[in-house]
Design a protein that fits this description.
By secondary structure, the protein is mainly α. It is built from eight helices and no strands. About 75% of the residues lie in helices and about 0% in strands.
Length: about 110
C-alpha cells in the first residue's frame, strides 16, 4: 500500500459530513428517546438532588425531570403537580432544541455550497 492509497483511505476522517449527519440525527432523536423513558420507573427513583437529600426539603428544581417527561407525554396536570416551573422551562428547552437543530442543518447545507 503506497502513500497515496493511505491518504485516500483517511480522507473520510477529514470530512465533517458524517459527523454532521450523526449530530443532526442525534438532535432529532432526543425528544423521541425521552418520550420512551418509562414514567412508572422514573416515579419510583430516589432523588439525586443534593439539597433535598441533605435537608429533606424540595428545591425549585425538584421534580423538573418528571414534569418535563410528563409534559412530553401530554400529561400537563401531572407535570404541573411535579413542578410548576415546567411552564417556563419546557418552552425554553424547546427553543434551545429547535435553535440547535436549525444551526446543525444550516451548517450541513453550508458545507454543500462550499
Amino acid at each position: 500500500m503506497g502513500l497515496s492509497q493511505m491518504q485516500t483511505d483517511t480522507n473520510w476522517l477529514k470530512s465533517k459530513k458524517p459527523q454532521h449527519n450523526i449530530k443532526s440525527i442525534g438532535i432529532l432523536l432526543i425528544p423521541i428517546a425521552l418520550y420512551f423513558v418509562p414514567m412508572d420507573w422514573l416515579k419510583h427513583q430516589q432523588s439525586v438532588c443534593l439539597f433535598k437529600n441533605l435537608t429533606g426539603n424540595d428545591c425549585y428544581g425538584c421534580g423538573m425531570t418528571r414534569a418535563i417527561l410528563s409534559a412530553l407525554h401530554f400529561q400537563f396536570g401531572q407535570a404541573f403537580h411535579y413542578n410548576k416551573l415546567f411552564v417556563i422551562v419546557l418552552p425554553l428547552l424547546i427553543y434551545i432544541w429547535t435553535k440547535t437543530l436549525i444551526r446543525t442543518v444550516d451548517r450541513k447545507n453550508l458545507h454543500k455550497l462550499v
